User: Which sequence fits this backbone?
């Protein structure tokens, strides 16, 4: 076994590899760029090597720097993680030339699966089910129509060099094929400088299902079940699970065996993933093979109990696979959410900056439920603009799918992040979504269910009751302490009313609340009377960012942030300002005029004499409150000017390099 | 006998009606509460005891003797409790003669001012009125003066809070101006000496009441207001929160309640608060929020001179005043506005025996003609003066820059800092490296390599806390994550602090 390995990556995956290596007694070497000096993976590793400036192209992607780092530290092998150099044939070869082991497949296998068309040809040759289509270059529209007729409609016309939906056309008839062919070709030409297109069958409501395979250098290859990753936003996976609610044993076996056949055909000798597109009718077709550890590998680990990184290291060191196909048992269900630094309410714009709070839910296994959080950040750390904005992968495992989903929803509620915007409200709302809970998935799920993007969810039904009960309990705890302040008039105790009016944004909920021993009893007022008491119990104390406890016996966690005369609560995708009023306060509050949130003035003024460093917007641009408008340098310090409200930039008066006086107009809103 | 007792209730009921239902409805329509509704929200339930409910005006001129007399005469006074602690209040009743001040109205305010002084408890004034009652002439003016005088006598003895919840003009503005804090309600309150009509007549300037003296003006530009809130309810509930921080009088000591927060709490994230790049800003409020109990911080003048942060928090359940340079705004520089803002806050804390914690990251005083012509020297001196005359515990922590005279001003050891800490990232020097090198090594300016070497030398030698620590100007260099624990310990140690200034009539603060 290796004594020391280097991890040619950063963030959560570097940390994840280090954990396994440490458990195996292997020393680790981290590499880091300027932006990652204080990163978690650097402090976790036994050694660390600086490999250059922040941009990945000048650090994490430079093969020579990684090889040099190995030589300098005596690392015998390199784990590439995912992304960066993980699927570069040249990297695997460079390491081999330097006598360093690549913890991944051999370069021939990487190369064979690296090309989309070539990999499909290899799959077809290995009798893997491929999407019916024509892989050769199509000469003209007549040929296109002929091929489409053979395949059967609908068909998809795709650029050979393409990606990201460019040069892609779906056709349901001959005339659409002819037209689509011409347009796809011209788009392919203009986008990629390569006008080759091909045609294949278009799968309606497809699902993304992938098979994890594992091979060694002795010709053994097994499959470790499937993962379903149909919940995607713009081709970016958001939620993954294992197993898939679509598959039955027969389909699993069929897909697994085909995946192994393909891996065997290319001499695969590490962990890899064979991706399929599946129809709702359980038909499935090969998509591509990823010759690396997938981001979503933890869900497979949790249902198989196999540490994939450990297996990769062992086979790379030449060990024979100790697991046979028959040993692989899938147990329970695992769900993974990708927690991203992006603002779900503002079209998922990346949000970078300092993590002023980062308190993930507790990891571990209790009562058959496992919570695992793979992360590469820490409280006080920075989400940098240079890399993927993923904060963490939150994984839950439970005996059943619904239990795993509920565990995931609960873990998301208990995940406190502040300082940047994050997608947890969106992930929580997904966990709440009936179609997801029913397992009726397709890769179009998010586009279909959230056609207008993600908006603030108003509290409803049980969510509203739980939010109101917790708000009342928090207010009670605060109130009890207020009545213990020193210097009170001795003669007269402050009386406390039981009735409260809890305002969750616009929603008003009447209830009665009082302490009962260690718990707090909440009774909702229904039809003039008080309903059945609901016991609210928690060890929460003011100042803690996460309230966790039980409401009516049900475990509940929610985010609590103090605001003026209330608190912002976040629970199951609902983010709302809660105010807890007494009867007379509520009566007065109902008399108060409703005010629209507005920023001050139409012009953005220079707040101090300074030099304009950057203007971040253009005239006519629509901006949202909080977006960066300009950067002004003064006293040698950069000051970021942000929009105080939503609006459209009408005119820009300043240019980068301008020296401005205080109150000079920088730009004006329409 | 029963009839007589019932008569009292009838008269009370009439007094509670103020200007009558129509006026009450009009008040509500404007988005405002009535005087009694406001007091009801400010005080603990059932704790308010009203005085002088039956007082009526005694004016006879201009038909006042024939017109209606309304019991209470436009102001409601009394006392009650806020979380059990005694608070006195007067509230102008806009539904009665527009809340205008008559001789008897002024006498009611004076009565409650006198009571508050005798009882040594805070007084809150709720303003919503149309100025002097013109029909009463000089009697009203004399009434104002009596109120003003009492404001001044009470200054520094009991906390005085003014809340502007409607019009406040002319003679009405000067009583609030002499109190400790002024808060305003956004959009429904304004304050000015002369209103838009007079302004137009005299200067031909056309402005609205909001533009002339709304909350948006006074909380951000003029610094008259210490804060502004969205509506009456929000404002009054925040006043309750503020009162929880304030001592009842200068000799009562800060209020205390059991803290839910651990005084030994360490915040590892503070170790990365200071960015690697010395020119990058960071938010000093994160430090304050992570140091105070439960992240609970009541900011004073949040929207004015944002380059310095002032406000109240608690440590170990006891009130502490915080003053901190804010690198996010103007690099945390001290200018005239910031100096005045902080000076007034420091003096309030010192007057009422509230310990002060100061966080320092200041690149110096703001240069330029605007500042110098505006009297930066004198305004800066106010802050220096305020800190220097403090006898309350002063705990200071330098997080990054402490350059030039600003280092001295920000509660340095030499002007009275009791415990002065610095983070390892502190840079204590006369100025930053670039400027210093260009002066000391003027001859080398043409030679970039030499300048770079000199700059590096300067940075290594001076831009650290250790030169100051070696001289004892800094008592200890502390890890950022231990800041709360260290400050809590220092404050505990200083609880018995006794310091005295020499006898004199009074000092001569550079006004």
Assistant:
């Amino acid at each position: 076994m290796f004594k020391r390995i280097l991890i040619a990556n950063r963030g959560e995956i570097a940390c994840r590899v280090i954990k396994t290596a440490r458990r195996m007694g292997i020393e680790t070497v981290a590499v880091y760029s300027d932006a990652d000096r204080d990163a978690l993976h650097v402090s976790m590793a036994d050694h660390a090597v600086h490999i250059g400036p922040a941009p990945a192209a000048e650090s994490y992607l430079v093969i020579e720097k990684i090889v040099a780092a190995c030589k300098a530290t005596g690392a015998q092998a390199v784990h590439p993680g995912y992304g960066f150099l993980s699927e570069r044939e040249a990297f695997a070869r460079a390491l081999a030339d330097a006598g360093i082991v690549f913890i991944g497949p051999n370069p021939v296998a990487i190369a064979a699966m690296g090309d989309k068309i070539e990999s499909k040809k290899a799959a077809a040759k290995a009798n893997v089910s491929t999407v019916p289509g024509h892989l050769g270059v199509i000469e003209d529209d007549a040929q296109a129509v002929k091929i489409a007729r053979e395949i059967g409609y609908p068909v998809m016309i795709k650029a050979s060099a393409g990606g990201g939906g460019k040069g892609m056309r779906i056709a349901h008839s001959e005339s659409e094929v002819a037209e689509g062919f011409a347009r796809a070709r011209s788009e392919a030409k203009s986008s990629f400088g390569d006008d080759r297109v091909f045609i294949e069958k278009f799968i309606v409501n497809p699902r993304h299902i992938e098979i994890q395979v594992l091979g060694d250098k002795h010709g053994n290859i097994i499959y470790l079940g499937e993962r379903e990753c149909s919940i995607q936003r713009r081709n970016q996976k958001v939620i993954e699970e294992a197993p898939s609610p679509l598959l039955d044993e027969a389909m699993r076996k069929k897909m697994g065996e085909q995946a192994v056949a393909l891996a065997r055909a290319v001499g695969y000798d590490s962990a890899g993933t064979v991706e399929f597109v599946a129809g709702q009718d359980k038909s499935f077709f090969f998509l591509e093979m990823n010759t690396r550890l997938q981001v979503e590998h933890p869900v497979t680990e949790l249902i198989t109990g196999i540490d994939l990184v450990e297996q990769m290291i062992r086979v790379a060191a030449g060990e024979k696979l100790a697991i046979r196909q028959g040993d692989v048992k899938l147990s329970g269900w695992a769900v993974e959410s990708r927690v991203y630094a992006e603002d779900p309410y503002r079209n998922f714009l990346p949000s970078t900056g300092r993590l002023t709070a980062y308190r993930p839910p507790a990891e571990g296994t209790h009562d058959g439920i496992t919570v695992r959080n793979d992360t590469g950040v820490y409280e006080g750390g920075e989400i940098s603009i240079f890399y993927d904005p993923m904060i963490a992968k939150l994984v839950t495992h439970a005996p059943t799918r619904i239990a795993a989903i509920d565990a995931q929803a609960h873990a998301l509620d208990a995940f406190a992040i502040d300082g940047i915007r994050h997608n947890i409200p969106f992930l929580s709302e997904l966990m709440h979504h009936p179609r997801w809970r029913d397992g009726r998935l397709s890769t179009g799920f998010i586009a279909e269910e959230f056609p207008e993007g993600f908006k603030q969810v108003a509290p409803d039904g049980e969510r509203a009751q739980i939010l109101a009960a917790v708000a009342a309990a928090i207010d009670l705890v605060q109130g009890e302490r207020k009545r213990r302040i020193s210097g009170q008039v001795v003669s007269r105790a402050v009386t406390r009313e039981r009735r409260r009016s809890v305002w969750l944004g616009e929603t008003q909920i009447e209830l009665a609340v009082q302490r009962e021993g260690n718990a707090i009893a909440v009774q909702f007022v229904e039809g003039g009377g008080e309903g059945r008491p609901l016991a609210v119990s928690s060890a929460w104390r003011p100042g803690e960012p996460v309230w966790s406890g039980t409401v009516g016996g049900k475990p509940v966690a929610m985010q609590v942030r103090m605001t003026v005369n209330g608190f912002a609560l976040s629970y199951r995708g609902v983010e709302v300002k809660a105010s807890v009023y007494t009867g007379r306060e509520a009566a007065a509050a109902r008399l108060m005029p409703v005010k629209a949130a507005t920023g001050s003035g139409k012009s953005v003024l220079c707040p101090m004499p300074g030099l304009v460093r950057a203007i971040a917007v253009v005239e006519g641009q629509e901006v949202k409150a909080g977006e960066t408008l300009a950067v002004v340098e003064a006293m040698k310090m950069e000051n970021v000017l942000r929009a105080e409200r939503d609006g459209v930039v009408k005119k820009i008066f300043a240019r980068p390099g301008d020296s401005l006086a205080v109150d000079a107009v920088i730009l004006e809103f329409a | 006998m029963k009839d007589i007792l019932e008569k009292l209730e009838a008269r009370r009921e009439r007094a509670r009606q103020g200007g009558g239902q129509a006026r009450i409805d009009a008040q509500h329509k404007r988005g405002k509460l009535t005087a009694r509704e406001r007091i009801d929200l400010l005080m603990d339930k059932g704790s308010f005891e009203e005085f002088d409910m039956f007082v009526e005006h005694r004016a006879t001129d201009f038909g006042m003797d024939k017109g209606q007399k309304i019991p209470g005469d436009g102001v409601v006074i009394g006392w009650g409790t806020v979380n059990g602690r005694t608070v006195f209040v007067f509230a102008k009743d806009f539904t009665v003669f527009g809340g205008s001040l008559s001789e008897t109205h002024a006498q009611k305010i004076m009565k409650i001012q006198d009571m508050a002084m005798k009882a040594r408890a805070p007084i809150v004034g709720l303003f919503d009125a149309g100025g002097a009652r013109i029909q009463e002439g000089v009697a009203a003016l004399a009434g104002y003066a009596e109120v003003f005088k009492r404001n001044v006598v009470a200054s520094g003895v009991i906390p005085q809070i003014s809340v502007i919840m409607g019009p406040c003009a002319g003679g009405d503005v000067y009583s609030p101006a002499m109190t400790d804090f002024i808060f305003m309600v956004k959009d429904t309150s304004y304050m000015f000496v002369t209103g838009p009509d007079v302004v137009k007549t005299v200067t031909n300037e056309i402005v609205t009441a909001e533009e002339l003296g709304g909350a948006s003006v006074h909380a951000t530009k003029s610094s008259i207001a210490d804060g502004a809130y969205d509506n009456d309810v929000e404002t009054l509930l925040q006043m309750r929160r503020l009162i929880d921080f304030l001592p009842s009088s200068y000799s009562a000591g800060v209020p205390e309640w059991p803290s839910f927060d651990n005084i030994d709490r360490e915040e590892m994230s503070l170790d990365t608060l200071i960015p690697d790049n010395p020119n990058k800003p960071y938010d000093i409020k994160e430090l304050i929020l992570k140091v105070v109990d439960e992240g609970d911080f009541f900011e004073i003048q949040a929207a004015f001179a944002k380059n310095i942060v002032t406000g109240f928090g608690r440590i170990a359940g006891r009130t502490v005043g915080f003053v901190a340079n804010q690198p996010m705004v103007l690099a945390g520089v001290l200018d005239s506005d910031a100096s005045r803002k902080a000076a007034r806050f420091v003096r309030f804390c010192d007057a009422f025996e509230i310990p002060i914690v100061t966080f320092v990251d200041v690149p110096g005083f703001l240069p330029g003609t605007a500042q110098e012509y505006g009297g930066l020297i004198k305004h800066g001196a106010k802050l220096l003066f305020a800190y220097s005359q403090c006898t309350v515990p002063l705990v200071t922590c330098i997080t990054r820059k402490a350059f030039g005279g600003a280092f001295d001003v920000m509660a340095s050891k030499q002007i009275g800092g009791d415990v002065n800490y610095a983070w390892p990232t502190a840079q204590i020097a006369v100025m930053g490296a670039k400027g210093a090198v260009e002066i000391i090594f003027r001859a080398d300016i043409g030679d970039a390599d030499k300048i770079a070497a000199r700059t590096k030398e300067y940075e290594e030698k001076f831009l650290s806390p250790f030169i100051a620590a070696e001289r004892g100007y800094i008592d200890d260099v502390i890890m950022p994550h231990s800041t709360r624990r260290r400050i809590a310990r220092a404050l505990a140690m200083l609880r018995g602090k006794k310091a005295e200034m020499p006898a004199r009539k009074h000092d001569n603060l550079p006004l």
